[in-house]
Amino acid sequence: MIQPVSPPSFRKAARISIGRDQLLNVLEFLLEPLTLALSLWMVAIAHTGGYLAPRYMLLSLAVFAVTFPGPAYLTQTPVSVIRNILANWITISGLLFLLCYASGYLRYFDADVLITWWWIAPLGAVGTHFMFRGITPQIIKLQGNERRAIIAGMNDQGIELARRLGADPYSHIQVLGFFDDRSTDRINQSPDQVLLGRITSLAAYVKLNQVDAIYISLPMASQPRILSLLEDLRDTTASIYFVPDIFVTDLIQGRMDTVSGLPVVAVCETPFTGLNGVLKRGSDILISLLLLVLTSPVLLCVAAGIKLTSPGPVIFRQRRYGLDGREIVVYKFRSMRVAEDGPVIPQAQKNDPRITPLGRFLRRTSLDEFPQFINVLQGRMSIVGPRPHAVAHNEMYRKMIRGYMLRHKVKPGITGWAQVNGSRGETRTLDKMTERINYDLDYLRNWSLRLDLYIIARTMWVVLMERDNAY
Length: 471
Description:
Number of helices: 13
Helix content: 40-55%
Largest sheet: 5 strands, parallel
Distance between the termini: 30 Å
Number of domains: 3
Strand order of the largest sheet: 3-2-1-4-5
Shape: globular
Oligomer: single chain
Number of strands: 11
C-alpha cells in the first residue's frame, strides 16, 4: 500500500528574518526598489540638463511598485547576490519593454536614456547592496548591545528557533539557553544547546541575568503552565514572545491577522487577498491580452493546421480542479487523436501513440497551452500558479500526498514554480508528483509579483531550451 508522503517541516518564505532588527528589514525592502528608481532619475536628469520629465517619474514609480519589497540578500553569497540581481533586472526590464512596446508608450521615452539606465541600474543595485552589507555591522552596533534571550521549551520549534537565530549573522540576539520541565533523557539535546533549568526557575533567572527577550515555545496543550509562567514574568522587564507549536506544521501564508478586532493566527490562507489580489488579477489580464494580440497570427495558423491534419475539434476541453477545488473547464489546442475526460486518464508519455505529429510539436513548444489565456481572461485560471491536473488524477493523488489539495488555495496556472524547476510533463512515480506538489506549496508560501515575473521569464527559457520532459 502506498503511504501518504509528507512535505518537509520548517519550510519558510524567503523574506522571513527571525529575530533580525526591524530596521535592517525595512532598509533591505527599500534598497533595490529605490536604487532602480533613483538611477532612472539620475540618468534622465543628466540627459536633459537638470529636468526630470513626468514620463520618467511615472516609469520610476512603476519600477518601484513592481520591485517592492526588495529581496533579502544579506545572507546570500556575493556570487548569488550578483546573479540574482542581474536575473531579476533582466526579467523586470524585459517585461517593461514588451509592455511599453505593445502599448505604444515606448515612443515617449528617449532611447539613449533607456539604454544608459538599462546597464546603470543593475550596477547601482549591486553596488548599493555591497555598500549596505559593509555598513550593516555599524547599523547593528547603533542598536546597542546584543539582546539576551532564553527559550521556554526545548522542543522541535524551540530548537529550530535557536538554530535560526544562531545561523543569522544579523539577528542581534544571543540565545543563552533553554528551560524545560522534562528530564534530560527525554530531550534531544545537542552539545551547543544549554538546558538552564526548569520552567519554575525561569523568572528568577530572568531577573538575575538581565534577559531581554523570552520565547515561549511550550505546546499549546500546556495552557496552565503557560499562564503560570506569564504570571511569574509580570515582575520582569523582558519582552515576551509566544512560539506556538502550530508553526512546526506546514503553514501556507502563516501570519498574524485580526477578525473584527480579535487577533488570530492564519495557518492556511491564499496569498491573493487585498492589494495582492488586485495586483495578481491586473497583471493576469494585462499580460494575457498582450500575448493573445501578439500571437494571434500564429494561433490562427495552429488552429488551421489541427483542422487540416487530423479529424476532431480544434480546441480540447477537459475538466480540471480550479480555485477552492471547484471544477472548471480548461481549453487547449487538441494535440491527440482522442479527447479523454473520464474517470481514468493515462498521462501523456514519451512516444505516446495518441499524440498526432502536429500535436507533438505543439506540446514540445507549449503552443497547445495558449488557449488557456482565454481561461485567464475568464477568471478561471492565472498565468502563474500550480498546473491544473485532470479531475481523475486529482482524486487519485489527493489520497496519497498529504497537503495535495492546498495547491487549490489559488487559481491554477498556465505555468508554475514546479514547471520552471524541472517538474514539467509526465510524473511517473509518486515521488515525482510529491516533488511537484512541494514546489507548488513553496510558491504559495513565497508569492510576490516579482516571483511571478521571474517564472514567466524563466518559462520562456524552459520552452525554448529545455524540452526533455515535454511530450
